[in-house]
Specification:
Belongs to the binding-protein-dependent transport system permease family. By secondary structure, this protein is an all-alpha fold. The chain has 10 helices and no strands.
């Protein structure tokens, strides 16, 4: 009688490497997909996921959009020759003028070029989203893997602590932090801290749940039997087998943090002038929206496309990594 196929949970690889250097327990491959990697070795979760992602139009489209946005953020001079930080490029006599050959998106309430400000505004919005995501992923992932592995008192205390943070509405809490310390630190740094303080518990829960599922697997039992310490088990064996769902959540959260920064800037406690962000541009243009809608519409469109691109990429990665969604 053949042995039943072991269950494969979301975020766990189908082929798990035992701690022994000579023993490997290959798991069944996904039927009809990439069977083996180069060299005849069984395909890993990441190899199989990359094979699947390359065939998803939604993933390809989102990656193209994100790459364009990243180039726009770090090399805005490639897209416009106008420097929006130079006051001489603004002319009050041309305020709220419509699009023209020299000003594709028209001019805003101060006579500044909307296209140039939109291009330069991408940098702060994306940098805030990326740095906040990195901080929340590292902090939440570290706490989550320790709590999930240790269990007991450590797990109970950390879980109660995260519940306190979950009880605070994210935008309201970030608004309170940013407003309280406004003027005492750089506005961009303050937004990152405010969003990170309230954003790490979600990553903590995802990592903790993945570790609790993975630590009952045979490769962890074998590692303990061979005398591996807690640190080696957590970071050598559990982390690689639990990080997949965290990557998915981090990708989706990145778009959410960009939107949250725009909300804080719109409310006047996020990025402040003379810095530029899409949320700040929307806030500046709202009072004259009926008279001149384009200075608000263009940064809003860029913001929506950016958030949608990261969410689309996160959904595609989730579908590729989770066998139950295939």
């Amino acid at each position: 009688m053949s042995n039943p196929t072991p269950p494969v949970g979301p975020g766990l690889p189908e082929t798990q490497t035992m701690v022994s250097d000579t023993v490997t327990a290959p798991a069944p491959h996904r039927q009809g997909k990439h069977k083996q990697a180069k060299g005849g070795k069984p395909a890993s979760l990441w190899t199989d996921a990359w094979y699947d992602l390359r065939r998803r139009p939604m993933f390809i489209l989102s990656v193209v959009i994100i790459l364009i946005l990243l180039v726009m953020s770090f090399w805005p001079q490639l897209f416009t020759s106008v420097d929006p930080f130079n006051a001489r490029t603004c002319d009050l006599s041309t305020a709220r003028q419509g699009p023209s050959a020299g000003h594709l998106f028209g001019r805003d309430n101060l006579g500044c070029d909307v296209y140039a400000r939109t291009i330069y505004g991408a940098r702060n919005s994306i940098v805030i989203g990326v740095l906040t995501t990195i901080i929340t992923t590292l902090v939440g992932g570290l706490f989550g893997i320790v709590a999930g592995y240790k269990s007991g008192l450590v797990d109970s205390v950390s879980s109660r602590l995260t519940e306190v943070f979950f009880a605070i509405p994210p935008i309201l809490g970030a608004l309170l932090i940013a407003a309280t310390f406004r003027g005492r630190a750089n506005s961009i740094l303050l937004v990152i801290i405010a969003l990170a303080v309230l954003g790490w518990p979600m990553t903590y829960r995802i990592m903790r749940a993945a570790v609790i599922t993975a630590k009952s697997q045979d490769f962890v039992v074998a590692a303990r039997a061979l005398g591996a310490g807690a640190g080696r088990i957590m970071f050598r064996h559990l982390l690689p087998n639990s990080v997949a769902p965290v990557i998915v959540v981090a990708t989706i959260n990145l778009g959410g943090f960009i939107a949250a920064e725009a909300a804080l800037s719109f409310l006047g406690v996020g990025v402040l002038s003379p810095d530029i962000s899409w949320g700040l541009m929307i806030a500046d243009a709202r009072d004259r929206f009926l008279e001149a809608p384009l200075p608000l519409i263009f940064p809003a469109v860029f913001l929506c496309v950016t958030v949608l691109a990261f969410i689309m990429m996160g959904d595609a990665v989730r579908d590729a990594l989770d066998p139950k969604l295939r």
